[in-house]
Amino acid sequence: MTDLLARVAAIAARETAKAFGLSEDVLSALSASIWGWNAADIGNREASAAGRVLCSARVIELLRGEGMPKGDALAVARIAGLQAAKRTPELVPLAHPVAVHGVRVELTVADDGVDIAATVRTADRTGVEMEALTAVQIALLTQRINELTGHFK
Predict the structure, then answer these.
(1) pLDDT tens for residues 19-64?
(2) What does the radius of gyration of the chain's CA atoms come to, in whole angstroms?
(3) What's the pTM value of the predicted model, to 2 decimals?
(4) Contact 78, 140 (CB under 8 A)
(5) Which residues does residue 119 pair with via DSSP β-bridges, in sequence order?
(6) Cα–Cα distance measured from residue 118 to residue 81, given in angstroms and rounded to the nearest whole number
(7) For residues 105 and 120, is the Cβ–Cβ distance under 8 A?
(8) Which residues, 6+ apart, have CB-to-CB distance to 140 below 8 Å?
(9) Burial of 139 (C-beta count, 10 Å sphere; 0-12/13-18/19+)
């Protein structure tokens, strides 16, 4: 089974590299593997991540006011981050499925953008760093997509 997973991972890495136009030299340097974590003790684990998306002055004005034409953009980004933390193994290649027991995503409007922080908790054999990072990245992306697609007009 391990050999099959390794072959599938190698094929996925090769196809991804080709899609991004990477050379065979770069491709040969890529290596993917899944490490077992069943020997680790089950314990309470927590991880946090943070990021910032820069926004125009007009977007900041709308986020601070109550004039959002298509609804609460911050709530949409928060929900996207919450969902992303729970679905990390579907979004990040080779990520272990983890029983996520709690997720907090906070968005704060700053003078030049939106600060996003996520904290993820579990009682499992592995940490939840990838889940926290994924929550922040998807919330950031959602906020930016809202701006680019006219949510703030």
Answers:
(1) 666 665 655 665 555 555 566 788 899 999 999 999 888 888 888 8
(2) 19
(3) 0.73
(4) no
(5) 48, 104
(6) 8
(7) no
(8) 51, 52, 53, 77, 114, 116
(9) buried
What's the token pair of residue 78?
A: 């928060």
Q: Are 146 and 58 in contact (CB under 8 A)?
A: no
Specify the 3-state DSSP secondary structure of 40. coil
Which amino acid, one-letter code, is at 140?
L
Asked if residue 74 lies in contact with residue 114, where contact means CB atoms within 8 angstroms, the answer is: yes
With contact defined as beta carbons under 8 Å apart, do 115 and 30 qualify? no
Q: Phi/psi of residue 52, each to 5°?
A: -140, 135
Q: What is the pLDDT of residue 59?
A: 85
Q: Tell me the CA distances in angstroms from 42 to 37, 100, 123, one per residue in order.
A: 10, 13, 6
Instruction: Please check the confidence at residue 95 and state whether its pLDDT lies above 70.
Output: yes
pLDDT of residue 2: 58
Which single residue is written with the structure tokens 């990390």? 88
